[in-house]
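User: Hi! I'm working on a homework problem where we have to compare a predicted structure to a textbook description. Could you give me the structure for the chain below?
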Amino acid sequence: MTVETGEHIMSARILARAALVGAGAPALLGPLTAATAVAASDADGGGARIMAAPYAVVPYETVNVRSGPARSYDKVGSVAANQARGAYCWVRGETIRDHGYTNNVWVKLVEGYVSAVYLKGNEYGTCPPPRPADRPPVSGEEGGRTVTVNPLRPSSPPPTLGPCPTPFGRPGLTDATAITELLNEVDRIEIGRPETDLHIVEADLKRPEIVLESDSWLAFDGERLVAYGLLWDESASERVDVDHYVLPDHQQAGELILDALQARALEKARENGAARAVVHLHLNTEPTLDTELIERRGWHVVRRYHVLQRPVDAAVDLVPELPAGIRLRACAEGTDRARVHALYQSSFAEHFDFQPRSYDRWLHDVDAEGLDWSLVWIAGTEDLGDVGFLLARDDREAMGWIRSIGVLSEARGSGLGGLLLRHAFAAFAARGRDTVGLGVDTANPTGAPALYARHGMAVHYAVDTWETVLS
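Assistant: Happy to help. Predicted structure tokens:
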């Protein structure tokens, strides 16, 4: 019996953030207003596909596509002359001077950014301009930079809709409070109550494999944070994980983050020497994200998890008596911690989507410095020695949490899983907790879902694992 509940499922689900950063300053995007998608040919993938983008732009010569709105960003592709491409909006970035024109407008495509200097149409490549107060001058100085509009591209009339969100990058610990508030707003919509704690968000931002400058994104509507994305790689190969949160009425900001996540995931996999990226995203089964947006991009559900909960009562949930031949000890010494790691690696080795972790990496993942190790137990038998463990934590406002529980295959069916559960229930009840939760893979082949049901645990909410393969 094994179940790895994970920290992210506790924070309602796994999602992600997108920061579209201009050179040296936060980027200001133009409006995302049209409701229809644009059909465009994919020169790299072959054939036509539907771009989830509201506008179409056409370069008059072959133009490089970059990961950000400046030539200092990586080249991520190119668009051939007269090749229509789906576009979201414009962004002010590096000033480009070419063919006698000067412009600091870059257009956000599905793949990345292109300078509007090379696009047919107006100075925004036919993407709607910002509101009059936000528009650059037709000619003259803007912030010390000369902006000359291509005379072949007359300015568009002022739109009636407002500008799209303003994404900016490099979120850090100072952003953790705003991110927590966003995640709890999403929690209220998806599961009916806030369950995300600040320290969990802070731990995410400090993950050692994440480079915030390239692997994290935030999107704002005015001063309000409306979308968040995060990417990390534990496999050092093709498997990449992403988080994505968006408020229901800001789907277009969510699209921008989603596209940034996909582009970075493929880049990350290629940095690892892989030819493709296999990307996983966890979403509530009734998420705030419009799932049509990811289905159109080839995402599909590969797994479902249940977050379970159970009430506990100190008068009822007493410490269980140990059967003959069974021993149970708290994880008190460093050698015990190493033993729990070894049991974790062995008991989860064949688990769906399991990523092996070194001892040091595992200590970071479980927040070893902040973890109350008295809530970690090792179970053993006289014949087999140490064969099982349970790791719990009591730093969540919503409930006590069982992060992971595992029993080696040779000891399964002996009742150790149930014994560890009852011991955890009693410990949390004695601490004054009224609820204990955990997460479980509904397709777990070891019988864990049935075990939890027998011990009174019921579904709180469900999370789907979505997958896409990028190449």
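For your comparison, note the following. The mean pLDDT is 79. Residues 91 and 425 are 53 Å apart (CA to CA). Good luck with the assignment!
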